[in-house]
Amino acid sequence: MKINDWDKLRVFYHVALSGSFTHASEKLCLSQSAVSRQILALEASLLTSLFSRRARGLVLTEAGTKLLKAAQEVFHKVQEVETSIEADLSEPQGPLRISAPSYFSEKWLVSRLAQFQKKYPKVQLDFMVSDGFQELERGHCDLAIRSWSSGLSDLMQQKFLTYRMGVYASHDYLMTHARPEGIHDLKSHHLVLHEADINALSAPKEEGSPKGGGFNSNELHILLKSNSYGFLEKTLSQGRGIGFLPNFDVGSQRQRIIPKGRQPLGYLFFLWLS
Which residue in 47, 64, 152, 235 has the most C-beta neighbors within 10 A? Predict the structure, then answer.
């Protein structure tokens, strides 16, 4: 004796709960005769009666009571699995490999990780600190965060953060040099700059440079350049010159020396392979 037809078990389950072929047929959208045939076939396969037919309705036999208990456990477990699958499909989960610049990661991103992980507890983050495209191109990461957009056709991009670029110098440097009042006063100072800022300052104004633009490269006295804002921050702290830093968190050893309304803009982009 085997129960090898789940449809019959499902019909039995609803008949047992409702105590009526009529109510079960309405629940299952079947005819009353179809429900009755399924129960008779199930009883025949088990070689026993599952219900006692009485004037007030159907009453479970001892065998029917045992089968109902087993059916309840089965359907409850199926419901749990369905709910779990639905949750998995609707909730982000699994590993997410992110490549992000070191300065942005340290000054902005790390303070927001707890909020992200509270919202998406099933996502396992794997961070790589880098400023290049190589991780995306080689498939080493799923998402890159960069301070410049890409012109590559196989990379998708979306701008997700706009921030102010502060112009900073140390207290010691400002003790011996005139304080600049605007971007164009920088040409008379020693500059400590990120490579991206040099390109922006040298770009024509009509290209919409976020750093101000319009400089001739010969006008700029670039004392030092780097591809790391963290390295530049330490250099500025030693009084070596003036430079741009993202306004995330730069500490007290540097002063923001151009009024906020005239500070250039910086952008961060999400980049991923199409």
Answer: 64
CATH 1.10.10.10, applies to 6-90 = yes
Which stretches within the chain are classed as H helix?
6-18, 21-28, 32-46, 62-90, 102-104, 113-119, 134-137, 171-176, 195-202, 229-237
Write b or e for each residue in 239-250: b if 16 or more Cβ atoms lie within 10 A of its Cβ, otherwise e.
bbbbbbbbbbeb
In this prediction, residue 207 carries a pLDDT of: 43
Task: Report the DSSP pairing between strands 123-129 and 94-100.
Answer: parallel
Half-sphere exposure of 192 (CA within 13 A, CB side): 23
Residue 252 pLDDT > 50: no
Q: Any residues with CB less than 8 A from the CB of 164 and at least 6 apart, and which?
A: 246, 247, 260, 263, 264, 265, 266
- In this prediction, residue 97 carries a pLDDT of 92
β-bridge mates for residue 247, sequence order: none
For the segment 29-53, what is each residue's pLDDT rounded down to a tens digit?
889 999 999 999 999 988 999 998 8
Residues in a beta bridge with 162 = 267
Tell me the domain boundaries of the chain. Answer: 6-90, 98-273
Give the least confident one: 103-112, 129-138, 183-192.
129-138
pTM, to two decimals: 0.56
Domain 98-273: CATH architecture, name and number where available: 3-Layer(aba) Sandwich (3.40)
Dihedral sign, CA of 169, 174, 177, 181? Answer: positive
Using CA atoms, how far apart are residues 133 and 141, in angstroms rounded to an integer?
10
Q: pLDDT, tens digit, for every residue of 188-201? A: 899 998 877 776 67
Nearest to 179 by CA among 239, 132, 134, 242: 242
Which among 87, 239, 258, 95 is positioned nearest to 179, based on CA atoms?
Answer: 258
